[in-house]
């Protein structure tokens, strides 16, 4: 017995949307699923005077034929109704998937793993320390790089303290945030890699730092989901001479 429609629809996702015509056609009646009433060619049709040698001549159906045809007709109606139901359910699923993939241009994609956390302190312009269910984690903001302000083995860079101060103003101690992962979740220093969203207003922190000229883009594959969005924000800030682009000329300029 075929599985109920819901069993097939749930796991389809976008691939199911692409396969929708094939799936729906499987419910549409074909000639082998039941006889159809014979039709006589219209007199004006170009094929009205032509008959294939192996085609039987038209004949009016007898009473038994009519009964079979009606049964086939009813079967066809049921199958068409099933097709409509399948199409409706799949269209709903597809529209939901499409909306999910198209929305959130200013916030991280919600298909990625998310973790709620509370900010304990800001280390520098692109690193924070958070508490996750009682555990302390150092988090490196994905896709961006701010000038150095506290690195032990590297000199302080132009606009480093300004970037750190701005991030502190966005994420003071006790701020609730959502950490959104990409492909790889940790770097070689065992820092958690994440896109950071402020829970109170859904501000996408990584993107905001780029838009306001406090950071430049730094992508390490395979964590490149927002490459295009981030590069566009960086280019806009550069052209407008915002932040470090106007003061320093770039994110890696030594202080002084």
Short synopsis of the structure:
The chain is an alpha+beta fold and 256 residues long. It has helices at 5-9, 13-18, 20-25, 63-102, 160-170, 205-211, 227-240, 244-247; strands spanning 114-124, 127-132, 135-141, 144-145, 176-180, 192-198, 203-204, 216-217.
Structure write-up:
The structure is a single chain. The protein is α+β, with helices and mostly antiparallel strands. It folds into 2 domains: 1-37 and 65-99; 114-247, Beta Barrel (OB fold (Dihydrolipoamide Acetyltransferase, E2P)). The chain is built from 8 helices and 8 strands, in the order ααααββββαβββαβαα. It has helices spanning 5-9, 13-18, 20-25, 63-102, 160-170, 205-211, 227-240, 244-247, and strands at residues 114-124, 127-132, 135-141, 144-145, 176-180, 192-198, 203-204, 216-217. The strands form 2 sheets. Strands 1-2-3-6-5 form a 5-stranded mixed barrel. β1 (114-124) and β2 (127-132) form a beta hairpin. α6 (205-211) packs parallel to α7 (227-240). 21% of the residues are buried. Mean pLDDT is 72; it is low at 1-71 and 92-105.
Number of helices: 8
* Known CATH architecture of the largest domain: Beta Barrel
Please tell me the overall pLDDT.
Answer: 72
**Count of strand segments:** 8
Helix-and-strand structural type? alpha+beta
Alpha-carbon distance between the two ends: 77 Å
Q: Quick one: overall form?
A: globular
Helix content range of the residues, please? 25-40%
Give the number of domains: 2
